[in-house]
Amino acid sequence: MAHTTLASGLGWDGLAIWGLKAKAVYSEGEVSLSLFHDLSRQWSHLNYPLLLPTVEAWLYWFLGGVNEEQVKVVFVAYQLSLLTLFYIAIRRQHAGWYALVWTLVLASLPALLHNGSTGYADLPLSALVFAASAYLHLWIEEGRLADLSLAGLLAALAPWMKREGLLFWVIALGAVVLCSGPRYSLALRERLRAGLRFALPVVLVAPWLVFAVVLRLPDNDFAVSVGTLLANLPRLPALARLLLEQLISVRSWGVLWQLVALAALWRPRQASAGERYLLAAPAAYLLPLTASYVFSTWGSYTAHVAASLERLVLHVCPTAVLFLALRASRWSPWAYQLSLASDDREAALAREAPSCGIGKHDAVWPLGRRSA
Hints:
Helix 5 runs parallel beside helix 18 (301-328), helix 8 (122-142) packs parallel to helix 10 and helix 16 (256-265) crosses helix 18 (301-328). The protein is mainly α. The chain is built from 19 helices and no strands. The two termini are 39 Å apart. The chain has one domain.
């Protein structure tokens, strides 16, 4: 995967949008207001966030000049971070070999290989969304405040990477308030405190969100209004069909989403609260984003969908693979190997239970130990 990325080009968006902003920041030595007031740059999507361009600009400063070949190391780093975090997320509860198998499954998905080899911001956003979801899943299962805080920090960076990250942040915040740890047992005041702890890091990106609203940065692709919504409502059935076709595309995803659907239907009552979140979050993310194409200003909205829907699905793909891996661990006796530290971890959780409001049986159960 790393070799493919280094050997490939940055792609159109990687050059004309993210790369252009990175070069502007590098050449001007700062994020200048001219970047947003120069109408000759309007086609580069002035309202797109600046996390990726500033990271690229920092690398240019480090290298001493613009180098579109060496800047690809940024995307290799995001790829390796995603796969490493995915392995750790499964390894924390399961055997090493099991985590490695599913990490290889994730790394071999065609859409991940294709989109990960470009200079687009979609794979970096996918890494942030997955990392936040993984730690949020662990907090829902185990109740550790450290996991909640880390999930909040990672989720807050998502809107700074791409605009769609703001939707994910809202979904994750809703999950925190609704789930509020094991057994949904926290009172309203404690739920709000958990939500505040999760939401606090968003102050890091709040200045950008306020700035974009105050400056009324133009949107090149969407015109959001009640009139547009009413006029384009007939698009919804076609959009639903296009989303389904994307999910069942073997060329992009193999049979991943078919297996996710089967895993969701297989003994759904046995799914833990954290697993339900891992299943619900991708659905809550993809449905409104797909529906948002009713506001598309493209001459052909279906061409707009064809150009971008696969990348939207990529944002939540690793989260869905994690859900599948956790559910698949109970499908066959050969998967019932425990990690060496699982018993010690369970004992530690039992000792910590009084401080986080859970009982000893509320901690996550490792492979083969969860009750029906």
